[in-house]
């Protein structure tokens, strides 16, 4: 169990140094992209460990109707929505059935872009080592949308890193990144928060404060 997200990021950063030592330092500093909100306090010590540039990539889960915790799709930045086809089939849904949810989440992505970036341009990933960081992977659908969006920006090397991952997410995402780094892949996984002593809800002010301080 991790004390909090900072503790998890410190441990994850050391793991990545050990694992990616052949890449770091590179000609350009690695780009560490944290997923707000929970990924940002994890990403801060990861960026320090890798001597990387910290920024954010904004993605939103698309939930099943009436089941806000059950992600069946996601979208990242200005990319198209990515859906879990098996989940759609099991629920008897089509992508068109979720058009309202897609637009709602796209609007929230836009709001967060304005709030967190404060006029800054999106980070340039082309030709760089890019490390995407979150505080944990449950279904992995948000991470998949993020990685597919980043593939379109042609990074030199793409890493997905999280302190804890469900076995389902780990196996499903194995082909979407050059490296998938998870410190814990428990046989029994219920929720990301179970692996943290302090897993408090973060606010927009928390995110902007961390980004401003780095």
TrEMBL record:
Domain of life, per lineage: Bacteria
InterPro entries the record matches: PRTase-like (IPR029057), PRTase_dom (IPR000836)
Organism this protein belongs to: Kineosporia corallincola
UniProt protein name: Phosphoribosyltransferase domain-containing protein
Ranges for domain Phosphoribosyltransferase: 30-186
